[in-house]
Write a structure and sequence with these properties.
Elements lengths: L3 H81 L3 H84 L2 H13 L6 E5 L2 E2 L8 H6 L7 E2 L6 E3 L1
Parallel strand pairs: 1-4
Antiparallel strand pairs: 1-2, 3-4
The structure holds zinc ion.
Zinc ion (ZN) binds next to loops.
Length: 234
């Protein structure tokens, strides 16, 4: 015959389990959120690094450009000087300097063209990567919103679960409840109130003694598995 106090404890145990499930789900959320945040940070860092590399090349191109201008100004200056010099060897020396500067300009311009092609290719790759990353970040942000909604729902569920557990506990016998709380603390996992079936405790799956098997037939006082200490009933 079922002990009515055990039946009340079974309700407590059931609501206890629901509350724990909600608590565990809630406890997992910060880690999920942190993982999403970290992904967004990593994606943003990647794209910023690519943007930075492109900018550095653009800067290098501008420097080449200004070096070309410096050399061209020098050529202009040598040409003006050539108009003023009287001696042949001075004139030749200037011609040599002009030639050197012109060679330098040619080399610089070649480098600049090479760099421009690189920038073009990288800009294209950057634009493609940026679009993909933006899409992924958008998806991650949506997941964060969903996570927040789930958190709100779980918090509401948590409050309901607590109230419903409190209500079940209020209806249970305080002596039985004390045993329940003690067993709950000691047992690694539920159930804390276990049925005895075929002489076996359904909590630890071990055979209970004949005394316990006999005692669970009596209602009115709590009985315990002599193997694991759980509250047992028939
Ligand atoms: Zn047991």
């Amino acid at each position: 015959m079922a002990d009515p106090q055990i039946e009340k404890l079974l309700i407590v145990q059931d609501r206890d389990a629901s509350l724990q499930k909600t608590e565990q789900e809630l406890a997992r959320l910060p880690r999920e959120r942190a993982a999403l945040d970290a992904k967004i940070v990593a994606e943003t860092e990647n794209i910023e690094a690519a943007r930075h590399a492109l900018k550095a090349k653009e800067l290098a191109r501008k420097e080449l450009d200004s070096e070309v201008k410096t050399q061209e100004a020098a050529i202009q200056k040598f040409r003006t000087l050539q108009l003023e010099v009287k001696k042949n060897d001075e004139y030749r020396a200037l011609t040599q300097q002009i030639e050197q500067a012109e060679t330098a300009v040619a080399t610089l311009e070649e480098k600049e063209i090479h760099l421009l092609l690189e920038i073009d290719t990288e800009q294209e790759a950057f634009d493609t990567a940026k679009a993909e990353i933006d899409t992924r970040i958008e998806i991650q942000k949506r997941s964060i919103t969903q996570l927040q909604e789930r958190e709100n729902n779980l918090k509401a569920t948590l409050n309901e679960a607590r109230a419903s557990l409190d209500e079940a506990r209020a209806g249970a016998d305080s002596d039985y409840l004390q045993h329940y709380d003690r067993v709950r603390k000691l047992s690694k996992r539920p159930p804390y109130v276990a049925r005895v079936e075929n002489h076996t405790c359904s909590g630890c799956h071990l055979r209970v003694s004949n005394e316990v098997a006999q005692a669970v037939r009596e209602s009115g006082e709590p009985h315990f598995c002599d193997q694991c200490g759980r509250l047992v009933y028939l």
